[in-house]
Amino acid sequence: RIYLDHAAAMPVDPRVLDAALPYLTEKVGNPSSLYNEGLTAKSAIEEARGRVADLINAEDTQSIIFTSGATESNNIAVRGTALRNIRTGKKIAASTIEHISVINPAKDLQKSGFAFDRIPVDAMGVVDLEALNGIVTPETAVTSVIYANNEIGTVEPIPEIAGIVHDRGRYLHVDATDAAGRIPIDVQRDGIDLLTLSGNQLGGPEGIGALYIRPGVREQPVIFGGGQERGLRSGTENLFGIVGMGEAARIAGADMQGESRRLAGIRDRLIERILTIDEAYLTGHPVKRLPHHASFRFSRIEGESIQLAMDMYGIAVATGSACTSRTLEASHVLLAIGLRHEEAHGSMIATLGRSNTMEQVPMVVDAARETVKRLRAITPL
Ligand code: PLP
Hints:
Layout: E1 2-3, H1 14-20, H2 36-55, E2 64-67, H3 70-84, E3 91-95, H4 100-110, E4 115-119, H5 129-135, E5 140-146, H6 158-167, E6 171-175, H7 187-190, E7 194-198, E8 209-213, H8 239-274, E9 280-282, E10 293-298, H9 303-312, E11 315-316, H10 332-336, H11 341-344, E12 347-351, H12 361-378
Parallel strand pairs: 1-11, 3-4, 3-5, 5-6, 6-7
Antiparallel strand pairs: 2-8, 7-8, 9-10, 10-12
């Protein structure tokens, strides 16, 4: 089989498993306990925190808190920041191509009287800086922009966005779920106040994530309890997940340059060849895109049928976001870049990873060409 859906789920790096597995078996202890096993657990967590901090050049290891994943990090960043800074204004802003785990907490805040402003993007998915300039005001508690979009791969001009948000003296949250470990992220250089990270997207386990909170940013918890993670994320720490995420962050930092260059070569060949298929179009930015990300749309066919047909050729691809495709609604991201509903339905996304090679490209392209031809022959569209 050829697996091309690394944005949905990634295999854990064997080195991650080696590092983390002992914390499920012989090295078990609660980091809040003062005896030896507890101290060992605590120090493993602090080492992992340091590794995650290093990956994004955070100024202080304590600026990283571990969460259950990117969804929770996004919820804390949007909801926790908005509620803690309510006195400065009841407004929040987010781009139209945010992940649903940013959009839904923002919508929920509207029930508490917050205004939720949406920042448009252009046809390639790049945030409209002029619009942003007009939308963000000193009353906007937090502005959320994705580092690079999971469906179309477009990388946003984060330093410019940060400049505009900071001009108003407000906070910028960036969802780096798909960008971290693929392109260099430096929260200090980029001007990021809050940054969401996913453990699995770095090559670590599922069920773990992190949120970077720049020292001095006023934040409040979303989950209350025993006060772990500086009181911002209570609950006994996921020791296995945290150690795994720390090791994944270390490996990502060390391997990123070479692996991203390798994957970008495969991506470029795949894009070039897929675009020779009749009425196939690239979605997202042709250049400013994630190195492992290729996304397309084919006119007059349905993404779900493409996924099923490709599966029969032994190839796993995505269509729309794995998290929303079960609703069968057109992707809000593809609508935001200006596609019509019928155009937004025929999407195919390939996200590459370690198991992928240049030799697989012709097989994928042949399967896609056959699939498109067959589906068009039977389509009522
Ligand atoms: N943010 C982005 C950009 C994503 O692509 C995803 C999921 O793939 C998430 C957040 C949510 O991640 P999780 O479901 O692991 O919490």
